[in-house]
Amino acid sequence: MIKKLNTADLKLPPLQLTAASRDIVLSGVVCIALIVAAFFWLQQNEKKRVESLRINALTSAIADQQRKTLTAYVANLGARVDSASLRLQTLDTGKANISGVEQTLAAAFPEALNALLLHVGAQGIADEDTHTQRLRNNIEIDMLRKSLETRSTIVETYQHNGEWLLSFVRPVSSSAAFFISFGIRETIGHVLSASAGSTVTNALLQRYGGRESTIIAASPLLNEFEKQHHLPFGLVLKVYPRQEMLGQLAGDNTLPWLVCLLCIGLVCGSHSIFFLRSLQQPAPLARPSKVEPPSDPAVELERQIQQELTKKLSAGRQRESTHPTPKFDPTQQMRPPMPDIPERRNKAATPPANTEKLRDDDVFDLSDDGDISLDNAAFSGAASAAPPQETVKHNRNCFRAYDIRGIADRDLGDEQCLELGRAIGSEALNRGQSKILLGRDGRISSQRIRDALVKGLLSTGIDVIDLGLIATPMLHYACHDLNIGSGVMITGSHNPPEYNGLKISLNFSSLTSEDIANLATRIEQKDFLSGEGTLTGDSIEQRYIDRICSDVVIAQNLRVVIDAGNGATSRVAPELFEELGCDVVPLFCDIDGNFPNRSPDPTIPENLDALANAIIEHGADIGIALDGDGDRIAVVTASGRRPSADQLLMVLADDIISRNPGCDILFDVKCTRSLPQLIVERGGRPVMWKCGHSHMKRKMAHTGALLGGEYSGHIFFNERWYGFDDGMYAAARLIEALTLADTDMDTELDRYPALVSSPEILLPIKDEDKFAFINRVAAEHRFTDAKLIDIDGLRFEFRNGWGLIRASNTGPAISLRFEGESAVAMNSIRDAFAELIASIDPALADSL
Fold it and tell me: Are residues 632 and 732 in the same domain?
């Protein structure tokens, strides 16, 4: 019978606190108090300091950007005034025609308060026979006097009848001047408010002779964060953060206090464990001891032997741990010694039968030096090195003179693009770049390439800012606007739909052929950095449009047909020219990576047939065609003429040299002989250079040339722009030049000498043979009556024309072009080249 246990008979003593328990409780209270005090101090002091630093940094950045914007805006007004003054020199500015001239000026400057043509009498501004009585005060009279004396533009800011004015005076002749005034609050104030948004408020002041006058006041003023910048003509810009910005930059207190509570919880939890362990417990109740059965001698002996073995094994492990592990020497075989057992030795020395029939997945791998290694997957017990990574094959021919380009599905697969991203990111980081911009065109393969490229870039530790689907010049503009000097554009440019590629710039410079070859070498050697970059997004489209609209002035309302060819400019180009004041007729302005309407290359004349028809249908003044990524331009005139890019350069050079006598104009070796002749006649300096956008941009930077261009349609501006090729900006500047001169493209083309020229001719040849072929032409030609220009290929200048032969930078081809004073002269030069090519490679001459 089992007796029921009465729990009342079990008397447990109460828990007792020891000194250790009290110390644990006290230390927990002190820790909690210190944690709360530390977080409170951080919230009250450090948080405010960090917020102040952030506010100051952001305010300084906005102030600097606004300074640049205002300076550029005033400079643009001055350039427009200079252009208008030059235009006035070609018009009838007699007294009888003042009203008509001033109406023309008012149309060109709709934002101006007034635009005057002032005549000065024989005795100066005090002469009765003058129109200077229309000037409002002595400041304006003094401006006119200085302008006539110095023959330069005079600019002043001043107040008249409570209105703050920004005025320009520019001489038109020895007895006439152009005077124009703008309201500062309406013009500069509008620019300030547009750039400030809801983050800052601005004050604009004038300082003159120790006095300070407020033009635009800011309220409320947070003076502790004030930033000042001096602007031209005595103006001072002050920038203050708004309360809205302070609220946005103020940190949220929730997370820090949650961290504080977590720390307190950890302290409480850990101290509770120690506290419970420190409590004194009564001795356990005595229980009847269990009677052990008598031990079996055999079992006891086995137990003792087991204990002895355990002790020896432990001692052996301790002895082994006192000896360092030998380092692996790749020059020696580090196989563990085997016992000298005859059976095992003989078996190892016998080669396997029929070794030629080993499968690819057999456990043995015969390396180049003849050593045999074991596969980890087949023999997991052996400690061997990890198998090498699978080599990704890259088509070396894709690494071209100034970009990477190939057939997307064949040459730019996911693994290839992943390694390209790793190579580009590693190279950018080695050049001190921490961020890189990324853009893509609208081709079918561009999104896939983008995804793989981003993975590769981020794996190096570089931060990526994705600008989405944009045109190539918009990426170049973003580099300058965001002050991030590196960018990658995923685009096939003007090539057919199945092609794609990468245009790369690092530290504000396009990669050279050597740089791109180094990328290929880096990939071959797996020379990649490792890290964790971050991916963010941004939009540049509206900033790009606003920047061009603040720079370009189109003086007449033209009807323009924009043919985007279903490329990357399909959205932005029509909107840009509408904001510039044109009546836009869009053509093929839906992004479609298949390019269903025409080839992405607009420089081929037959690709412009639809544009020419649209011009006739809509009665347009001009047609603009852009290539697949927007960095090249082609034009069709109102009469249907299709001028080449070097003819467009003649119009633009004429315009730029008129404002900048003596400036350099850059062009490539394919351009017409008429272009350097016109540059010299207008007072400029012609500079011939290599083909290729990266070569041209570097030469533009080196020479300071204000304009550059290639026969392929790339046009570069250093005057008022950033020196990169941009088809949309080039079109805007072309229309500006035409409208300010009150002319059209057909009229301009009629002004220039017409030579007979061929299009660019491409003869197919293997990539590895094309440069050797050009070297043979240089060695074997007999053009003794011609001057040789060999800066890029071979250009032979004859008395009545010229011929060019060079290796193409973009494909396996030889490029030729011919020009002569007549068709007979051009064909004669062409026949001489055909005879020379036939003597070297008859099959190649058949294509010519």
Answer: yes
Same domain, 603 and 736: yes
Residue that wins the pLDDT comparison between 88 and 634: 634
Q: Is 493 a catalytic residue?
A: yes
Q: What b-and-e string marks burial along 485-500, b requiring 16 or more CB atoms within 10 Å of the CB?
A: bbbbbbbbbbbebebb
- Looking at residue 712, its pLDDT comes to 94
Q: How many CA atoms lie within 13 A of 823 on its CB side?
A: 0
Parallel/antiparallel/unpaired status of strands 463-469 and 211-216 = unpaired
Strand segments, DSSP code E, in 274-380 are: 364-366, 372-374
> Would the pLDDT of 384 be above 50?
no
* Residue 605: strand, helix, or coil: helix
- Residue 624 has phi, psi (to 5 degrees) of -120, 125
Q: What is the pLDDT of residue 450?
A: 97
Query: Which one of 493, 570, 658, 712 is the catalytic residue?
Result: 493
Measured CA to CA, the distance from residue 524 to residue 423 in angstroms comes to 10
- The reply to whether 580 and 647 lie within a common domain is yes
Confidence of residue 111 (pLDDT cuts 50, 70, 90): confident
The verdict on pTM exceeding 0.70 is: no
Q: Do both 43 and 117 map to the same domain? A: yes
- Please state the domain count of the chain: 4
The three state secondary structure string of 513-576 is HHHHHHHHHHHHCCCCCCECCCEEECCCHHHHHHHHHCCCCCCCCCEEEEECCCCCCCCHHHHH
Closest-CA residue to 712 (of 632, 780, 786, 652) = 632
Is-contact 741 86, C-beta < 8 A?
no
Task: For residue 810, give its domain range.
Answer: 757-847
pLDDT of residue 16: 55
Q: How far is 728 from 566, CA to CA, in rounded Å?
A: 15
Does the residue 291 lie in any domain? no
Is the model's pLDDT at 191 over the cut of 70?
yes
Among 75, 83, 76, residue whose Cα is nearest residue 654 = 83
Does residue 388 have a pLDDT over 60? no
CATH number of the domain that residue 522 is part of:
3.40.120.10
Q: Which of 280, 304, 336 is the last residue of a domain?
A: 280
| List of residues 6+ apart from 527 with CB closer than 8 A | 423, 426, 521
